[in-house]
Amino acid sequence: MSLEQQMKSGLLYREYGHKDEKDIAYEKVIERQRKHGKELTFAYNQTNPSDYGRKRELLQQILGSMGDEVWIESPVNFSYGCNTHVGNYFYANYGLVVVDDVDVFIGDYVMCGPNVSICVTGHPVYGEYRRDGTQFSLPVHIGNDVWIGANVVIMPGVTIGNNVVIGAGSVVTKDIPDNVVAFRTPCRVARQITDEDKEYFRKGVPVNKDWRE
């Protein structure tokens, strides 16, 4: 199986050291992608935060795809950038880290608190296998209307559903269904999101009717 196939199949692979000409050529492709993405991200992080036009222009070059009204606070770091796909109305606070050796899909109206890490890549448990950098990568999917709290870590292969809140400090190791609040380490469902949440924005505090004014 080729390096590209290993990467995209969730199997163990190395990013370098291959002998097959096809794999050597693909090593060079992903090396260029990583370098290009990191250089653009460096430029993004050094750009004045009031220069919205330049910030968006750089994000369009960094990301694989992006929707409207996307804002990511600096600093941000991507492994590649080109493997991350962001929907409309996305906001990420300071310190977002996206390890996107393979695809990361983020839906519409997603918010990330400070220091969120999205990681598609892991390493084998048996130590000898890690000595030459062997790893595996599994895509991450995040649905629409998701709020990810500060210092959350999302692990390889996780799918987070629509209308979900992930509590601060959680480590998300398994899929999270739609319409729930989930937190802890490892992250698990705490409760359903219900009609009561339309009336109270936090426990015992009703939604003020002029909140849109």
Present the secondary structure layout.
Layout: H1 3-8, H2 21-46, H3 52-62, E1 65-66, E2 70-72, E3 76-78, E4 84-86, E5 90-92, E6 96-99, E7 104-106, E8 111-112, E9 117-119, E10 121-122, H4 127-130, E11 136-137, E12 140-142, E13 146-148, E14 153-154, E15 159-160, E16 164-166, E17 171-172, E18 180-183, E19 188-192, H5 196-199, E20 200-202, E21 205-206
Helix pairs in contact: 2-3
What attributes does this structure have?
EC 2.3.1.-; Trimer_LpxA-like_sf; acyltransferase; alpha/beta; 213 residues; Mac_dom
Rounded Rg:
19 Å
Distance between the termini: 58 Å
Q: Whole-number average pLDDT?
A: 96
Helix content estimate? 10-25%
Total helices: the number is: 5
The arrangement of helices and strands along the chain is: HHHEEEEEEEEEEHEEEEEEEEEHEE
Shape from CA axes? globular
Strand-pairing-aware structural class:
alpha/beta
Order of adjacent strands in the largest pleated sheet: 2-5-8-13-16-18-19
Low-confidence stretches: none
How would you portray this structure in words?
Its EC number is 2.3.1.-. Residues 4-68 form the Maltose/galactoside acetyltransferase domain. This is Acetyltransferase. Keywords: Acyltransferase, Repeat, Transferase. The chain is built from five helices and 21 strands. It is α/β, with parallel strands linked by helices. The protein has a seven-stranded mixed beta sheet with strand order 2-5-8-13-16-18-19, with no helix packed on it. A five-stranded parallel beta sheet has the order 1-4-7-12-15, with no helix packed on it. Strand 20 (200-202) and strand 21 (205-206) form a beta hairpin. Helix 2 runs antiparallel to helix 3. The chain starts with a helix and ends in a 7-residue tail after the last strand.
